[in-house]
Amino acid sequence: MTYTTHSESETEALGAAFAKDLPAGTVAALYGELGCGKTAFVRGMARGMGIDCIVNSPTFTIVNEYLGGKMPLFHFDMYRLGGADELYDIGWEDYLGRGGVCAVEWSENVPGAFEGDEIEVRFAKTGDNDREITIVGGPEIC
Predict the structure, then answer these.
(1) Residue 45 falls within a domain, yes or no?
(2) Is the terminal CB of the chain with fewer CB neighbours within 10 Å at N or C?
(3) Is 122 exposed, middle or buried (0-12, 13-18, 19+ CB in 10 A)?
(4) Are the C-beta atoms of residues 124 and 36 closer than 8 Å to each other?
């Protein structure tokens, strides 16, 4: 399903609606160029999961853990990784087993890392503030 947002706040709202009923163990693989709304979407995911905290891109730390909601949100940024092997080196399998949701920015940098049951979220800039966000394999958002 493809959705169009016209502002950062609309992208966040879409992320909140997307995440509100996700089950534990969900992997959201986020794809898209720099500045296309991935982190704003994850900010919304946190809000939709009942997590009240500041959400920033984990570009240098690789992963940020957000706790305090109905389950943890693990926010990964694969921008600096060279492949799936490096993802496993940082404990990917441990995060999968912790009963939370994993949101993975720059998933295109770790091909083959997922088991095939991830939800793909693809972002495209269509204007200064406009984004097309396509969700494949996930919940339909009303």
Answers:
(1) yes
(2) C
(3) middle
(4) yes
